Amino acid sequence: EELKNDAPIVAEVPFSSDYKFMATVHEPAKVDNCPDGKYVCFVKGAPDRMVKLCKYQAKGGVAGDENLEDINENYWIEQIAILSSHGLRVLGLCRTTIDKDSVKAGDQLGPEFVNGRPEGKWLTMVGLCAIMDPPRPE
């Protein structure tokens, strides 16, 4: 609850099975180490799609803008395959910062906010989340 209050959602891209991700744009929390004039954007979704959108990965598990290295796509693809082979549902977890003037508070953004960036690869891969998600009974 404290984090929700400290980093409220400014805008979002709702999840859709068509594009297989969702994104939220937040006021930066104290823990985000975010430069002035920036929002923090979090994107989660199908890991193969997330990897293709990432330019960086968090170095040593710390996701601040000053602690990035070029993404090792092969590493992430291998980890996704390992987790999936155990029957787990895998999500890619990404983040970046964006200029505050690039979105307006309350915006319902479309998938092009994530997919249609002129810079192409623009996200930072923070990690993967693997969960047991058995099929629902029909």
From TrEMBL:
UniProt record, GO biological process: proton transmembrane transport
Location relative to the cell: Cell membrane
InterPro entries referenced in this protein's UniProt entry, alphabetically: ATPase_P-typ_cyto_dom_N, Cation_transp_ATPase_P-type
Keyword Membrane: yes
GO terms assigned for molecular function: ATPase-coupled monoatomic cation transmembrane transporter activity; nucleotide binding
Bilayer disposition of the protein: Multi-pass membrane protein
Keywords: Cell membrane, Membrane
Pfam families: Cation_ATPase
Listed name of the protein: Uncharacterized protein
Organism the protein comes from: Rhizochromulina marina
Species lineage: Eukaryota, Sar, Stramenopiles, Ochrophyta, Dictyochophyceae
